[in-house]
Design brief:
By secondary structure, the protein is mainly β. It has a single domain, classed as Methylamine Dehydrogenase, Chain H (7 Propeller). Helix content is 0%, strand content 57%. It contains no helices and 23 strands. A hairpin with a 4-residue loop joins strand 17 and strand 18. One of its GO terms (cellular component) is cytosol. It comes from Staphylococcus aureus. Its EC number is 3.1.1.31. It is an enzyme of class 3 (hydrolase).
């Protein structure tokens, strides 16, 4: 049995973090707890026996750390709510487990926290950095919207997607925070949302929420160069739809992209060691 956790909004009926058990033999998911009360815990990331989640209390925003016990139950370690600039939409952990990264969609900012590598607790907010890039022409691109932040496969940088600015921005990082390195631009009104890297580290699959497309990009030293792009919905679909998540199968043979509105999952065959996709 495998324990898993789901984050949720808490404004209405959401209870925070839900715990479930995956029964792989019976292909079944059983809900074990109705929720660990953690406000606005919409995105989670796990580091062994510590779970990190987005958090908010009143106007104070940031992240929380929770200990996972032997039974899979959650216990609060600590919180770092050092900002009033808005709640995040994505969190990730550096490979060396020293830093936690957060993207804040509404305010178009990114945050970086220092972690205790022994206990998993959040020590401090190192930096909060606002994006200031030219934006696209779509009505939702009124200002920058950082939507994803994660370390690149070479370990040198973090890559940040900006839905408002149609680009990926890479930063160097250390104990002092972020340092701008490079930017990779995509088409106007793409709404660049998330990235999924191939295990070989040479290719990335960049999904664009507003244009409902996925780009195959070659990654090299902080730069992304688009090789090809594919629609994730039928060309004749004229309803309201927005691309959401992207995942690679464990064997790297298939790429899955979800579409909200069209209510579908596009499945692509991964070809040529990650260089091409085929629907």
């Amino acid at each position: 049995m495998t324990n898993g956790y789901i984050g949720s909004y808490t404004k209405k009926n959401g209870k925070g973090i839900y715990r479930f058990e995956l029964n792989e033999n019976q292909s079944r998911i059983d809900l074990l707890e109705t929720g660990f009360e953690l406000e606005a815990s919409t995105y989670l990331v796990r580091n062994n026996e510590v779970l990190y989640g987005i958090n908010k209390e009143g106007e104070q925003c940031g992240v929380a750390s929770l200990k996972i016990d032997d039974n899979g139950e959650l216990h609060l370690l600590n919180k770092c709510l050092s900002s009033k600039a808005g709640t995040g939409c994505y969190v990730s952990i550096s490979e060396d487990k020293r830093y936690l990264f957060e993207a804040v969609y509404g305010a178009g900012i990114i945050r970086m926290y220092e972690l205790n590598t022994h206990t998993g607790e959040i020590i401090r907010l190192i930096q909060e950095l606002a994006h200031d890039f030219p934006t696209g022409t779509h009505e939702r691109q009124d200002h920058p919207h950082a939507h994803y932040i994660n370390q690149t496969p070479d370990g040198k940088y973090v890559a940040v997607t900006d839905l408002g600015a149609d680009r990926i921005v890479t930063y160097k990082f250390d104990d002092n925070g972020f340092e701008f390195y490079k930017e990779s631009l995509f088409k106007d009104s793409d709404g660049t949302r998330h990235i999924e890297f191939h295990d070989n580290g040479k290719f990335a699959y960049v999904v664009h929420e507003l244009s409902n497309t996925v780009s195959v990009a070659e990654y090299n030293d902080g730069k992304f160069e688009e090789l090809e792009r594919h629609l994730t919905i039928p060309e004749n679909f004229d309803g309201d739809t927005k691309l959401a998540a992207v995942r690679l199968s464990h064997d790297q043979q298939f790429l899955y992209v979800s579409n909200r509105g069209h209510d579908s999952i596009a499945i692509f065959k991964v070809l040529d060691n990650g260089q091409h996709l085929e629907l």
